[in-house]
């Protein structure tokens, strides 16, 4: 018998002597442990190999060196050929599919796999390819960290330094650039639906990926399409929606169509509008207005005014236009927070 001791305290014994007793197998010196797991191989060719080069060795090592990866996959371009609990042996290790989102067929899916840390990125891509329907050269693998995506490029590098639980995402596209092409950085952004006249005025909508330098109008188109695909219950029209910063629960800066998305912001509000966007310039100020009726002890639904400046006379004029109340009956006071 040959013992292999691991740093985790696990002891593996290669038992080839057919005359050995169970007592000898279960004892190690004066120590006895009932917690024994037996691996049996019926492959005569594998049996002839030296233990450390055998398939048996890889199966025994798997629980010791494996980690869990959460991977988001794009919609498959052909019928997936791998299923949950499938075990696949590579040159250096093993990959097992632990769970797979079977409900979102034809859509982006999430899977959890258990892989040997010694597997290389190239081998991992080979195993993922049947789930995506394209060859390994047709997609790239990114690691998500601090809400940003970082491409894993070293095909010969192992994932030894990763701990269990890292989130990876697969994106279609060639890993090798052609002459004149360049990579762009992608950001993961959380979107919230801003419904100013609803009791649930701040509602999580979805996550989206936006490329660095994306124009606001193009991102709006992307949001509309993704909301349809995900079946989100809201009506969005390209010229009747607004994108703005979300700071805490407060709506902040309004982004105009000609501007570029600030991808460093992790959260945004998507605000449906009653009509076309009234803001035309960055210097303008958007203000929510609630009309109070003291005699009825009631308030009207929230409306808004767009200010060209913060002069009190200008504010009063805009309030008069909105409400129909003459300017001489409106007073404006600025409150410093």
TrEMBL record:
Any Pfam family: USP47_C
InterPro entries cross-referenced by the UniProt entry: USP47_C (IPR045578)
Superkingdom as given in the UniProt entry: Eukaryota
Protein name per UniProt: Ubiquitin carboxyl-terminal hydrolase 47 C-terminal domain-containing protein
Organism taxonomic ancestry: Eukaryota, Metazoa, Porifera, Demospongiae, Heteroscleromorpha
The Ubiquitin carboxyl-terminal hydrolase 47 C-terminal domain, residue ranges: 188-334
């Amino acid at each position: 018998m040959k013992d292999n001791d691991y740093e985790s305290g696990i002891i593996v014994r290669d038992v080839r002597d057919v005359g050995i007793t169970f007592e000898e197998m279960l004892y190690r010196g004066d120590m006895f442990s009932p917690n024994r797991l037996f691996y049996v191989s019926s492959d005569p060719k594998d049996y002839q190999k030296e233990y450390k080069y055998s398939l048996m060795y890889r199966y025994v090592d798997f629980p010791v060196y494996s980690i869990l990866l959460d991977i988001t996959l794009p919609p498959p371009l052909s019928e997936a050929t791998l299923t949950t609990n499938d075990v696949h042996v590579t040159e250096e290790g093993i990959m097992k599919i632990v769970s797979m989102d079977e409900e979102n067929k034809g859509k982006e899916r999430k899977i959890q796999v258990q892989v040997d840390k010694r597997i290389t990125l190239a081998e991992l891509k080979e195993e993922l390819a049947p789930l995506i329907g394209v060859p390994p050269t047709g997609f790239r693998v990114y690691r998500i960290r601090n809400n940003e995506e970082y491409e894993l490029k070293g095909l010969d590098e192992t994932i030894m330094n990763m701990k269990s639980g890292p989130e990876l995402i697969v994106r279609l596209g060639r890993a090798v650039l052609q002459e004149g092409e360049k990579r762009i950085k992608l950001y993961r952004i959380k979107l919230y639906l801003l419904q100013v006249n609803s009791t649930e005025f701040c509602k999580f909508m979805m996550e989206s990926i936006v490329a660095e330098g994306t124009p606001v109008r193009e991102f709006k188109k992307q949001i509309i399409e993704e909301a349809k695909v995900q079946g989100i219950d809201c009506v969005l029209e390209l010229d009747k929606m607004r994108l703005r910063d979300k700071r805490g629960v407060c709506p902040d800066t309004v982004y105009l169509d000609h501007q570029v998305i600030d991808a460093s912001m992790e959260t945004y509000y998507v605000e449906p509008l009653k009509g076309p966007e009234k803001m035309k310039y960055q210097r303008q100020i958007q203000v929510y207005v609630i009309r109070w009726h003291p005699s009825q002890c009631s308030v009207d639904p929230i409306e808004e005014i767009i200010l060209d400046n913060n002069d009190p006379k200008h504010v009063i004029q805009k309030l008069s236009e909105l409400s129909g109340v003459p300017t001489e009956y409106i007073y404006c006071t600025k409150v410093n927070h």
